[in-house]
Amino acid sequence: MSALLALLLGVATAPAMVVIDEAATVREEAPPHGAIGMSTAWRISDSVPAPRSFEFRKRALHAGAAIGVHPIDHDEIYYVLSGTGIVHSDGEEKALKAGTAAWLYKGARVGIRQTGSEPLVLIIAYPNKVPAP
User: Fold this and answer.
1) Residue of 23, 77, 108, 115 with fewest CB within 10 Å of its CB?
2) For residue 3, what are the contacts with CB-CB under 8 A and spacing of at least 6?
3) What CA–CA distance (Å, rounded) separates 101 from 124?
């Protein structure tokens, strides 16, 4: 369906694409779920018009910072770009380094903390709840 026809029929359509410059999304803030330390957050998917089906974020946990342990109601991925950290899921902990990913499952209690001398830089992705029709 063409965008013009969709507009005339009152049907919402998504744009062909959205290109986002991460520099426009950056902010310094305490990490979520406990405000443990400080982080740099790139809230990339916030620039995508709603509704969107998943979140895509980049976060650098500064020295000693952590995303506190919290329950999740969706699968979630922490992918490490640089630095080192410890990921927590339901009482189990594993070390992470650049090039590793932790796939965390719906219903778990999860968190991650920075270790080492450099910031832990992550890509974090997870699905959004499906909006009600």
Assistant:
1) 23
2) 13
3) 10
For residue 9, what is the enclosing H or E element?
helix 3-9
Report pLDDT digits (tens) over 13-60: 677 888 999 999 999 999 999 999 999 999 998 888 877 888 999 999
CA dihedral for 91, 94, 98, 102, sign (positive or negative): negative
Question: To 10 degrees, the CA torsion angle through 47, 68, 110, 27?
Answer: 20
DSSP state of 72: -
Q: Work out the number of other CB atoms within 10 angstroms of the CB of residue 113.
A: 20
Looking at the DSSP bridge assignments, the partners of residue 67 are 112
Nearest to 72 by CA among 50, 54, 89: 89
